[in-house]
Amino acid sequence: MSYIRTLQSNVKSPDGESYSVDLGQYTILIGSNESGKSAIAESAQLARTGSAYGLLYRDKPIKDGTLLGALMPTEEGCSVKATLDSGEVCSWDLSPGKRPSRGGPNGSVLSVAELHGIMSGSAETQAKFFWRVLCKPVKVQELLEKLPDDLHEALVLVCPVDGRDISLADLIEKIGKFQREQNSVATAGRIALESLGGIRSISDDELEGAWSTLHRAMLRDVLRELYSEYQADPSLQAREVLRHLVKMLGGEGAITRIPETKIVGGDLSEVLINRRLSRAAVAARRGETQAVTLKEGLKKLKIAILRIMFEAIDWAADKFIDGVSEYLPGGEKLVFSVDIPSRTLSIGLKRGDVEYIALSGSTEARVLAAIAATLSDENDLVVVDDRMWDGATLGKTLGALEGARCQVLVMSTIKPKGRRRAAWSYVEVNREEGEPLSVEDGGE
Questions:
Q1: Residues with Cβ < 8 Å from 288, sequence gap 6 or more?
Q2: What whole-number distance in Å separates Cα of residue 106 and Cα of residue 99?
Q3: How many CB atoms lie within 10 A of CB 305?
Q4: In terms of CB atoms within 10 Å, which of 6, 120, 184, 328 comes out highest?
Q5: Is the pLDDT higher at 431 or at 44?
Q6: What's the distance, CA 424 to chain centroid?
Q7: DSSP secondary structure code for residue 346 in this structure
């Protein structure tokens, strides 16, 4: 077991000064809104992982120094030092203009807020998360056997078919990347076709005719020049040449109908441009068609793989339900429903014979906290944010989480109902506007 025993931090400190708080394996932070509970929770996350979930309205862990700069109380930067129960130290530091740095043993953090975001996300988001935590990688060859034959080509496009194991969650992400790439190709092709909308197709016969007309116009120019020179100097031996040129051009009547060379040259240039652009249009049309076809194939592949993932999750559901239910108050059991045809997941709570699916507030927080505890190991940290607790529900929740292998950090604006629980550290957090954060024993 490795958990944070003491935390020193100046994250979100109004005056930039550090504050210190002692934590236990199970800790409840009690304080009013804006008292600084989230500052302590974020400091713990940063020390353990170098990231914090949900900052600046983002529904994911944030590591980027520019974004984390919002945590800096002063221009001098901010830092966190966490001493573990083993005596080891984890640290995190952010200085202006520099990348964040983290040191010490690695850990992981799972927050109730993050689970809430996953459960309210898309089917793909749910499938990727629960497949990673409940299922094992599969052989690519085994995956091929489960897919229809018409999807094999699409799979080979994104995944080499060999003896390796593959995470279906990672594969879904790769398919999404290929879909975006093909969408870009299709969009580029469509834009190219729109810009080439006035271009007409040029046949080989039309191109050959344009070259022939230019050749005739140039011969006519030679004829005119030679005739002028012959008129100026009849001694030139040019009569037979002139007759031959007139005959080649079809006679005097045909010669008068030959366009001027500069006009013919302009027409040929237009033909050549149209010829080249029409080929570009054909390539653009072909590229768009191929991209759309690939995109549709990838879409079908993703749906098929998501179905396989939901089937695997459903197969592992019973064991997962039993594990989560151990961290719920007596008489309550997790409802974890997997609808394979519609590729959806839903969670709820069962009391007796009654199931409650549309959870909210503290009830939802209690269920999500139990899920987080089940999925975490002894070096992890579970953060349970404030969800409008009532004293009785909060007390039951603390009691149910006491057996968790991980470190648990619960935030609340109220104290739990009943006597102080011996396994829990009660920390009261206080901070007046503009004043330093202070912490003290919050037990009764």
A1: 185, 186, 189, 190, 193
A2: 18
A3: 23
A4: 328
A5: 44
A6: 38
A7: E
pLDDT in tens, 62-110: 666 666 766 776 677 888 999 999 999 999 888 887 888 899 998 888 8
**Using CA atoms, how far apart are residues 271 and 256, in angstroms rounded to an integer?**
23
**Phi, then psi, of 194 in degrees rounded to 5:** -65, -40
Task: Name the residue type at position 274.
Answer: N
355 close to 349: Cβ distance less than 8 angstroms: yes
E-state strands within 340-385: 344-351, 354-356, 380-384
Rounded distance between C-alpha atoms, residue 373 and residue 326, angstroms: 10
Nearest CA-CA partner of 58 in 138, 113, 102, 3: 113
* Structural domains in the chain plus CATH codes: 4-107+379-441 (3.40.50.300)
182-196, 282-296, 370-384: range with lowest mean pLDDT: 182-196
Residue of 421, 380, 386 lying closest to 404 (CA atoms): 380
Q: Which residue type does 281 have? A: A
Minimal CA–CA distance to 410: which of 430, 439, 437, 381? 381
Q: Where are the beta strands (DSSP E) in 95-168?
A: 101-103, 108-111, 138-139, 165-166
Q: Which amino acid is at 257?
A: R
